[in-house]
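user: can you give me the structure for this one chain? tokens are fine.
assistant: on it. calling the predictor now.
[tool input]
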Amino acid sequence: MQSAPAAANDLRAQLDPLAQLATEAIAKARQAGAEQAELSLSVEAGLSVNVRHGEVDTLEYTRDRGLSLTVYCQGRKGSASTADLSPDSIAKTLEHALAIAHHTEADPAAGLAEASRLATEFPDLDLWHPQPLDAENAIAQAKACEAAALAFDAAISNSEGASSALGQGISIYANSHGFVGREASTRCSLSASVIAGKGDAMQRDYDYDSARATGDLRSAQAIGSEAGRRTLARLGPRPIKTGEYPVILSAELARGFFAHLCSAASGGALYRRASFLLDACGTQVLPEWLQAVEDPFLPRGMGSASFDAEGVATKRQPLIDNGVLQHYLLGSYAARKLGLESTGNAGGLHNLLINSNAGDLNELIGGINRGLLITEVMGQGVNLITGDYSRGASGFWIENGEIAHPVHEITIAGHLPSLYRRIEAIGSDTDTRGNIRCGPLLVGRMTAAAEG
């Protein structure tokens, strides 16, 4: 038997056999009476390590696989899944999917994406950078990261641990239009979280990095030291007065802030009429200088793909142009419900690139007389139906263009449509670790409420 690390390295060689398996399963679905059929199949392998105080806390190898089969019969949809890729198991999965379709209501919006929209070109997006799933090396990386964080300053009193992870996966999407798409990608990450201070004065923070290739990760020393620096900076928080202030969201939080906009622009929220962006397509929702372009062909991008979850070809396209929302984010089902066409976003967004109009974070801070830099938000206070926004937050008070002191246990709030229009600047130090790439952003006015 292959060891877990060795077995993981042959994944991409399985793409062709699995594509053949998917093609045969689709053909059997058609023979069994399905008018249309689609199949998603994935195989993943990974390693994750957690250490604390220099000792291994957890070590886990994973190897997962799954197949999901969907059939359409006279507008009725049935889906079933299995982790067993044997012929008998796939046959039973098909039987279950057909049985489910027999009992569901017909839906005129159900069905495959239009054949004319399916991808025909599959450029190399440089997403495959496999590494041996080497536990000893992963442990060494995590230990080095934690050690750097603990050594940053004597005030760093404890550790919540450090982690190192490697993952690789392949996937097949096939449908009865004759489409067969193959994907192979890798991911890796490294992080550390430590605690500073004593008793009620303790504070924690962390840092991390993630990438497609291990060579693109920042060093364990750099990540650990940044975790220590962030933690130390949070000691000695002081209260602020409740009021309206200019607020900078760190680049990490800016990504999430724009993710709320993308969620509100998604087809599922719109056809359910559960979005504050209803009827907003073609209207100005952000400042005129702001551009947001979706680029699915970004090499090594976290959201790069030549086709979406339905096989529809992706394309480089503006989501926001001069502040105007150009289109919604639609898969085929949502598009039919709305009387529109798919935008190639079934399954999500593909690398949204948001432009900057300012210098780095330090320059944004330097331009504020009295305001806040927010580095952490908590809670689920985002209502995509009304646009109401209220999150617990921590960060730093800015006075005369400089960080004055940390703050915590405050609440930042506002109405998202207004907050988006109040964005005054986006910094040049872009966070590239997710499928939304954005620098720190400055909202000209936001309510900040102190505890009590």
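assistant: here you go. Residues 237-452 form one domain. The longest helix spans residues 15-31.
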